[in-house]
Amino acid sequence: IVAVDAGSPQHTGTATLVVQVLNSNDKAPYFTPSTQRTQVTEDQNEGHIFYKLKAADPDITNPDSLVYAVSEPITATDKDGRQLPSQVAGYKAFFDVIPETGEVKVASRLDREMAAIVTMTVVVTDISATPPQTGTGTLVVTIIDLNDFPPSFPRPWTPENPELHINAMEEQPKGSVVATLVATDPDSNIAEYRIEPENEFFHIDNTSGVISVKSRVDYESVQEVVFKVVAYDTGIPQMSASALITAKVLNINDNDPMFDQSSYHATVPENSPQGTSVITVNATDSDAADFGVIRYSLLGERSLDFTIDQKVSSVFAANNTGLLMNSLHLIVALASSLRRDSLLLKYML
């Protein structure tokens, strides 16, 4: 500051003025971040501290000026994600906040069957301000289930004898459903299913447990497929159970009988007596078991002049009236395996 007089010559004087700006408590406290998340296992005892709220206030000099509390609304969802009605009030007493420190503690016995996620409104107050200033935030607490039980498969599966048997028709199109495995878990859900190691013939849907055909299954090549299915639960720590699956491949009649020649030629003396052996034909069927058993018969206009043994395929003369010198007989041999037939033209002199 400069002062100047009115004399002549003029004289001046100077002085220094120091202005001190005093802070006023004009900013409210706030949570950082405004929504905070944590988790606690359901076996924790009352009084157990598992989290500390984070809040700030730019114009306080003493951290003790901040005081914490829990306020309404307090909401919760169950383990399946359903919102709990406000009448179910037990979960509101699960947790509390220590006012002086902002530490969150277990206030009553936790019950995850009642509530799996609790969402609380939290309040921080600057008590040094006049009037006191407040800020609000949200604390989301997930109650972690103790995973006491592994998954289990339907009976007759047991942990001691973890085997299941299914049937699978051969030659089913890719994607055809063979069976559905539904595992259950008393204290969590099923996270996924896997075939371990991966199987050449079958696939399992990770979510539904549906077993389907992955590639062609031919009974004549493989009659039984054994593989392991593992079910994993959603608990912490994650647990699993395995089932040894035996898939019995069911045979179908999918192959036609085949003669070893496209045509046969034979001669027989005229007027040969009944029962005279003429020729033996042969057919094979690659189907297994009963589906590969062949029966023979004759067709055609002149087939009555001959007979064929159904099992051994030998052709015999039936009567001698039709067997004339230099006559030509065209008959058809039929090889049958259950519902599949194979025709063969056959010339007889």
UniProtKB/TrEMBL annotation:
Cell division keyword on record: no
Cellular component GO terms held in the UniProt record: plasma membrane
Note the Pfam families from the entry.
Cadherin
According to its UniProt entry, one GO biological process term is:
homophilic cell adhesion via plasma membrane adhesion molecules
User: Could you tell me the membrane topology recorded for this protein?
Assistant: Single-pass membrane protein
Query: Domain Cadherin: where?
Result: 1-31, 32-153, 160-259, 260-349
Keywords for the protein's UniProt record, in alphabetical order:
Calcium, Glycoprotein, Membrane, Transmembrane, Transmembrane helix
**Gene Ontology MF annotations:** calcium ion binding
* Entries under InterPro entries matching the protein: Cadherin-like_dom, Cadherin-like_sf, Protocadherin/Cadherin-CA
Membrane as UniProt keyword:
yes
Localization: Membrane
Q: What name is this protein filed under?
A: Cadherin-87A
Report the gene name.
Cad87A_10
